[in-house]
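Quick one - first record:
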Amino acid sequence: MKTLLSNLKIVVPDKIFIKDPESSDLGKRIIEHSILLIDEIGFDNFTFKKLGVRIGSNESSIYRYFESKHKLLLYLTSWYWAWIEYQLVLETFSITDVDQQLSKAIEIVTRTIKEDTTFNHINEIVLNKIIINEYSKSYLTKEVDQENKEGYFIIYKRLVTRIKEFILKVKPDYKFPASLASTIVEGSLHQHFLVEHFKSITDCNVSNSPTLFFNELTFTVLKK
């Protein structure tokens, strides 16, 4: 299994990039160090010029892979959701009990992230911090509708749809499966943010994780 996973490639919509960063050592360095730099200084302060200095390459070389830092953020967020999706598929495949299947799906999208050694150039723990803090900047734009039409958010939407399908297995007549599914995914990011920055307005903490909260919330709604 480890050998099989070592050959796994996370697929990101090709319209997001000009040249696939996974196709070269420079591209992988761009991804690796953009994650670290965005975490260090924030997306608003991040520039290709600063990234170029960090990796010892010309700013123009980065533009051969991405036309803007917005597209780079779209790449990072798409990669993250695809990585979460592959875990969800892998870890729920053999579960036959529908309650357990949904519970595992909730765990996967809400749990604290651990680094995956399958992808040496990506620190998933740091990337998760970027998703929590910066993900909304990838879609809160004037261009969101056009980018949605072009498929930039297809992986995120596919992940939410998978959770929606698990919800319907538990309660086929539930009226709001997509709303609940998207609330679990987005709400998890928000709760992790609150735990880090606004502890007084969340009950989630080391003892009561977002996973426990969203499992209780979901099954309370579905089983009433």
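second record:
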Amino acid sequence: MPTLSDKKAIVEKITDELERSDAVYITNYKGMSVGDMADLRTEFRKGNVRYKVYKNTMVKRAMEAIGGYDELYPYLNEQNGFAFVEEEFAAPAKALKQYIKDHEKPEFKAALIDGDFYGEEQLDTLAAMKSKNEVIGDIVGLLLSPVSNIVSGLQAQGETIAGAVKTIAEKGEK
């Protein structure tokens, strides 16, 4: 049985995980074998997601210490696994959706992403989200698009004007 100092160390570890993460997903892994859990962790690692199993009471203590996790408290029951992720918010949802499709478990319970709450019925929405890098790429593309259109338009006009001036100059020489 863990001592009080062991429990405090675990809560500190969870607190560190939460502080490093931009998102936390909660899943119920009830009925999964050790092998299934290992397979799920492997899928999560592909998306740079850390999947851990902690006691709900210790997770709640860590969440209370940081604050802002109130909406997740009702989901801290049963056998939970916690997926922690930085930046790539959709990575856990994509891995979970595929894994659940193939194995029917674990059950997605809830997620908190940058302070926004997502319930169990929103896994598909989360899986469809673009990554930060994809969104940034889209924005950069949109911003550069008008500039490149203007530049090409000006170049075409310049070529036309230059051609017209050259034609007029040639006619004037004759």
